[in-house]
UniProtKB/TrEMBL annotation:
N-acetyltransferase domain mapped to chain residues: 1-121
SUPFAM superfamilies associated with the record: Acyl-CoA N-acyltransferases (Nat)
A biological-process GO annotation: L-arginine biosynthetic process
Organism: Desulforapulum autotrophicum (strain ATCC 43914 / DSM 3382 / VKM B-1955 / HRM2) (Desulfobacterium autotrophicum)
UniProtKB keywords: Acyltransferase, Transferase
A Pfam family it matches: Acetyltransf_1
PROSITE patterns associated with the record: GNAT
CDD domains registered for this protein in UniProt: NAT_SF
UniProt cross-references to PANTHER family, sorted A to Z: AMINO-ACID ACETYLTRANSFERASE, AMINO-ACID ACETYLTRANSFERASE NAGS1, CHLOROPLASTIC-RELATED
Protein name: Pks
Gene3D superfamilies, per database record: 3.40.630.30
One GO CC term on file: cytoplasm
Entry's Gene Ontology molecular function annotations: L-glutamate N-acetyltransferase activity
């Protein structure tokens, strides 16, 4: 994730911050080599925040990021979350392909809204899971 932090795509998190929420992180691993990661952080109002999406540069465009996103969305559904959201400064269009749509900082749950960093100017993207669970369209 370090390269993504240096590029400004991910927020720097301390080792203790990651350790405190280690159960929210998921990795994509093949033969004990890590090729990608992502996180699903439970939030207020039965919502979840997707974050820390990172893929090894040599595995970009090989579907690793898509697999991580699909897994996290499915996990949110399995946990009965009503909505997922994420903050991004770079790749909004990529997330639209998963059904995310634009929101605003005021769309965030209360506990996350107070921690929104205006200086970073992240776009807020939302994904309603309630309507997705009723959607029977093949994936």
């Amino acid at each position: 994730m370090e390269d993504y932090v240096k590029q400004g795509n991910l927020v720097l998190r301390s080792e203790s911050e990651i350790n405190d929420r280690i159960n929210d992180y998921y990795i994509y691993e093949v033969d004990r080599a890590i090729y990608g990661c992502g996180a699903l952080y439970p939030q207020d109002n039965n919502q979840g925040e997707i974050g820390a999406i990172a893929v090894n540069p040599s595995y970009k465009c090989k579907g690793v990021g898509k697999k991580i996103m699909r897994y996290l969305i499915g996990l949110g559904q399995k946990r009965g979350m009503n909505r997922l959201f994420l903050l991004t400064t770079q790749t909004s269009d990529w997330f639209y392909g998963f059904g995310f749509y634009p929101g605003t900082p005021s769309s965030l749950p209360p506990g996350r809204k107070v921690r929104y960093n205006n200086e970073r100017n992240s776009r807020v993207l939302l994904l309603d899971l309630v309507s997705r669970s009723q959607d029977t369209t093949p994936g």
